[in-house]
């Protein structure tokens, strides 16, 4: 108890994903009394990722350092091969990017987050319980507790306010705490990606046979080119033990601009002839899910702290999506452990209030910040992403001159793609995502002859297969402005909404008022998968549902 | 804090579990026995005092030897530190009066606890007698229809919110001093607003699940001699109630075709809506005609 009669813990960690777990375990290792609050009914039930976790050689911490046995018990298959497919219609040119994938990589495993995070949470609870804290699920932290304008703790839906010497916000991409602290705003679609994923049931022995891998091996396939209309982004396929994670990741601004339907783009990948040999004739989708991904090179917080608050992982924008390699969870682990280390050091010097600054210093000193916000990118984007230059590059590439260049480069292209320094500087334009892969496939590719017979479930079926505990009468998202102009983008961009689909979150409606028609949108939060897309593309008052309510992912 | 929770085994009346013979009589042999569903709320209330104030929760029942599984169920699903089964051929065919005499004697044998909890009537007899009668034998104050509970350990009092006449619309707050008898209402909701309470709760739940795996180590079985009661006052001999006959359960008056739908299935609910559409169209028509939209 604090002087004011409030419950007090030395540390409160909000969110039990990899960032929160790493922070909590490290705090407990330093003997800090640590309370972990997780809003899901179980850790992992709210968490989605594409599905690859890396342990980098250069990282200060890796997940298996902190949690021995992680790879054997919580992960799926190690990813031992890594391919990028450039697609133009049926033409495909495949690059083997295993070298790039293995650069600075100690290991990399496919994961499913429900299994992974609930495994981590059990260990975190045991560890933190020993130092007087513990992990509670079903508790949603809804904001920061302030005293005289300074952050001193958290407020929750289910518990009375709690004070702490340090609050670790590891509450994910739609971090309510980072927003409350004024560190993040949810306004600019160009700072975010949206990922959509299907987990597909395939028995382990069928996986090893169809992908030509051994029992303890796994493979990653990436896809770019013209199979996603003109939307900037790409697709992925990762092998789990008994399933496949197949998904797409697109720049949110591009999704909005093209008015593309995310589930249709995913279907475009699932039904491409290239996937026929891997999916076979018997397609069973276990789970459809979605999440936002921050673009670290634009939004990773350089100073992810304020007062007693430190922010780690997706909440701090620490998601490196650069070129064909996507790294998020590993950085969350490093950041979480570094934040814990910073607090322990600051506390030992009797100045716990300096923990935030120390954490930011450690992110720089350990090289994490340079990976998240590479200096090279700033220089390239300043030139390369300007409209005129981008268009010139694009048209040059598609011209006969550019095509000759691609043909001449031929085999060397694969080597260029495998160059880490180049992949760090890929600009966010159509060129690397759509134009270049399409030209490569057209010039160098060979046609796939397989017929893909997959019939993906409808959006209605996908929503119907998800588990929800709806907080009836208490919608967690409210439309602030229901005009089509302000919020209409959500009708297509929301992964569980679509034009002319009545069973989704967002619907377009026409209202008759005083003799003229008005385009408005209506919102039903029941099918919500809590990805946060509409928080950015529509005008909403956006919160997570209270503890244990809303969607519950079984795979994640 | 020592609390005792009373429970009873009842036939599992859930769909698919319960069996009736052709005369409509319950087939006890074919129907599994479970803990009376309402007793869960009594156990939840006892667990709340255990979490907040520490101490000890004893779960007690009177019945045949097989009722030890009912006690195990309570221990595994909610909470108990130890289990007492009052079981003896002399106690067979007891009515609520003889049962109350037996239970109160067993409670006194334990030493008077601070609080005794019971659930709101059993799913089989539905008399609602046993709790109040046991309380009368123990000479304690009783608070029924309790929906929330606060204990002041230092003052030796409890403050409870209860439904007046069992009505959710009217709630009164009453106080009593220990020892006291509490009947938890099915609307009882335990409240844990502090993290430390929730962490304790999590620990206790893990402990009780583990304990339930070897529940017989925590089980005491007492016969009438153990609790020092005269066989004339218990069992059939001590029961003033005579059940003269049991009427079969009447069949539903009309055989209507029923289709089960799941409220969470979008597909099935769409079918319901489609079936209702013609009716709704008529209703809308009326509303338009009368202009009261």
UniProtKB/TrEMBL annotation, chain A:
<dbReference type="InterPro" id="IPR002938">
    <property type="entry name" value="FAD-bd"/>
</dbReference>
<feature type="domain" description="FAD-binding">
    <location>
        <begin position="9"/>
        <end position="347"/>
    </location>
</feature>
<keyword id="KW-0285">Flavoprotein</keyword>
<protein>
    <submittedName>
        <fullName>Electron transfer flavoprotein-quinone oxidoreductase</fullName>
    </submittedName>
</protein>
<keyword id="KW-0560">Oxidoreductase</keyword>
<dbReference type="GO" id="GO:0071949">
    <property type="term" value="F:FAD binding"/>
</dbReference>
<dbReference type="InterPro" id="IPR036188">
    <property type="entry name" value="FAD/NAD-bd_sf"/>
</dbReference>
<keyword id="KW-0274">FAD</keyword>
<dbReference type="GO" id="GO:0016491">
    <property type="term" value="F:oxidoreductase activity"/>
</dbReference>
<dbReference type="Pfam" id="PF01494">
    <property type="entry name" value="FAD_binding_3"/>
</dbReference>
<dbReference type="InterPro" id="IPR039651">
    <property type="entry name" value="FixC-like"/>
</dbReference>
TrEMBL record, chain B:
<dbReference type="InterPro" id="IPR012255">
    <property type="entry name" value="ETF_b"/>
</dbReference>
<dbReference type="InterPro" id="IPR033948">
    <property type="entry name" value="ETF_beta_N"/>
</dbReference>
<feature type="domain" description="Electron transfer flavoprotein alpha/beta-subunit N-terminal">
    <location>
        <begin position="23"/>
        <end position="212"/>
    </location>
</feature>
<dbReference type="InterPro" id="IPR014730">
    <property type="entry name" value="ETF_a/b_N"/>
</dbReference>
<protein>
    <submittedName>
        <fullName>Electron transfer flavoprotein, subunit beta</fullName>
    </submittedName>
</protein>
<dbReference type="InterPro" id="IPR014729">
    <property type="entry name" value="Rossmann-like_a/b/a_fold"/>
</dbReference>
<dbReference type="Pfam" id="PF01012">
    <property type="entry name" value="ETF"/>
</dbReference>
<dbReference type="GO" id="GO:0009055">
    <property type="term" value="F:electron transfer activity"/>
</dbReference>
